[in-house]
Amino acid sequence: MMAGLLARIAEGRPVxxxxxxxxxxxxxxxxxxxxxIPTYGLDNDVDRIAELTRGRNVVPGVxxxxxxxxxxxGLLRPTSDPTCIAGAxxxxxxxxxxxxxxxxxxxxxxxxxxxxxxSLTPGTLVVLxxxxxxxxxxxxxxxLLESSGLRAGDEFLVAYSPERIDPGNTKYxxxxxxxxxxxxxxxxxxxxxxxxxxxxxxxxxxxxxxxxEMAKLLENTFRMVNIALxxxxxxxxxxxxxxxxxxxxxxxxxxxxxxxxYPGPGVGGHCIPLDPTYLAWQSRRDTGRAFRLVETxxxxxxxxxxxxxxxxxxxxxxxGTAVRGAHVLxxxxxxxxxxxxxxxxxxxxxxxxLARKGxxxxxxxxxxxxxxxxxxxxxxxxxxxxxxxxxxxxxxxxPHSSYDLAAVxxxxxxxxxxxxxxxxxxPASVVTL
Length: 433
Ligand code: SAJ
Prior knowledge:
The structure is a single chain. With 433 residues, the chain is an alpha/beta fold. It has three domains: 2-207, NAD(P)-binding Rossmann-like Domain (Rossmann fold, 3-Layer(aba) Sandwich); 217-300, N-(1-d-carboxylethyl)-l-norvaline Dehydrogenase, domain 2 (Orthogonal Bundle), CATH 1.10.1040.10; 303-431, Rossmann fold, CATH 3.40.50.720. Helices cover 40% and strands 15% of the residues. It has helices at 2-10, 23-34, 46-53, 64-73, 107-119, 136-145, 186-196, 209-239, 244-251, 275-287, 292-302, 304-318, 346-356, 385-390, 405-411, and strands at residues 16-19, 39-42, 76-79, 90-93, 99-100, 103-104, 125-128, 157-160, 179-183, 203-205, 327-331, 360-364, 370-373, 376-379, 393-396, 415-417, 430-431. Helix 2 (23-34) crosses helix 4 (64-73) and helix 5 packs parallel to helix 6. The termini are far apart. It binds ligand SAJ. Residues 131, 163-167, 220, 223, 227, 261-262, 264, 267-269, 271-272, 335-336 line the site of ligand SAJ.
C-alpha cells in the first residue's frame, strides 16, 4: 500500500492536495505545481477559489513570482471540492491556528482533519504544517483522521512539518529554506522527508511529530522574547538619553554569541505574537506552571504601542504642540515593511491611541487604501509635499521600501522614526523611540 505512495514520490509526481489556500498553503501548492506535481489547492472560500482559478493571486503574502509559475504550469487546480483528497497521495494541512482569549483555537485544524477523514484513502501521507503545540498531531489530528476507519501508521501515514515562510523575504523561499519533518513512524518520517525533498534542498528528519512541533515554537518564541528584550531596552535607553539603535549596532559588531533584534511600535503578524502563546498555554495545562519568559515578553511587546504613543506626545509637547488637535501623518500601518497585512499590526493601535488623545490623523500606506480597525476609519492620503508639510509630526511606523525618506525629511517639520529607518546620524528634525 505504501509502496505505491513511495514509488510515486520517488518518481517526483505524487498527487498532492493542500488543504487551506492562505499564504502558507498557496505558496507550497504553487511551488509544487511549478515543480511538476499535480496539485489541488483546496479551500472552502469559493470566491478565493474562483479568483485563483482565473489566475488572480488574491492572497496577501504570496508573491506573484511564486504564484505565476504554479498557475502557468497547468498543474495547480484550485478547488472547493474536498473529494479531491480521495485521489491524493500526499495531503498537507495548512490552516490558521489563531489564539482566542489566550488559548489555542484548533477549530480550523479540526475541521480540516474531519474533511480529510471524509475522503481519506489507504496509502495516503497526511502532513500537518500549521503551527501548534506539541502533541496536536498525535492527540487531535490522528483521532479525527482515524474516524475514516483507517489506522494511522498502518493504512495511512502522518507527519508534522512546520512552514517557515517569511512573508516579504526575497532571499529565502520554499526551496532554499531548510525543512524539518517528524512522523508518527519511521516510515512516515521517511515518506514525508522524501516528499519535501522534491521541493526543498535541505530536509532534516526528526524522531517524532512532537519534536518538530516544539522546534517550530522554539523558533518563533526565540524571536518574540528577543524582540521584547530590545523593546524594554529601548524604553530604558530613552530615559537615559541613549540611542538604543547605536547600542544595538555596537553590540552587533560582536561576530559570535549575539544576534541583533530591533525595537519598534510592537510585534505584529499572525505568528510571532501568537505562536508562543501555545507554549505558555500548554505549560500551564500540562504542568500547572506558567511559561514566565513568554508571558513577560508578550506583556513587554504589547506595551510598545502605548510607549510609542507617549513618546509622540512628548516630542510634540517639546515643540509646544499639544497632541489634541495636532495633525499627525502616519506612514506605514501594516505589520511589517513590504507586506500588505494588517493582522495584529501594532501601528494600528498607535493610530487608535493617538486619535483617542485628539490628534488629527492622516495616514499613507502603499498597501492599504482604507484603514478600518478598532475605532478608526480613515482613507489613505496622498503622499505629496503639501501633505507632509501640513503635518505637525510625520510618524514613520512601517518603513516600506517604496518610501523616499530623503524627500520626507526635506518637507517634514518633525519626523518620528519608530523603526530607525533613517539611520544615524539623525537630522535634527528626526527623533526616535
Ligand atoms: N519585529 C520587530 N523587531 C525585530 C523583528 C521583527 O519589532 O527585530 C516585528 C516586525 O515588525 C513584525 C513582527 O515583529 O511586526 C513579526 O515580524 P517577523 O518578520 O519576525 O514575523 P513574520 O510573521 O512576518 O514571519 C515570521 C518569520 N520571520 C522570520 O523568520 C524573519 C518566521 O519567524 C516564520 O517562518 C513565520 O513568522 C511563521 O510563519 O511562523
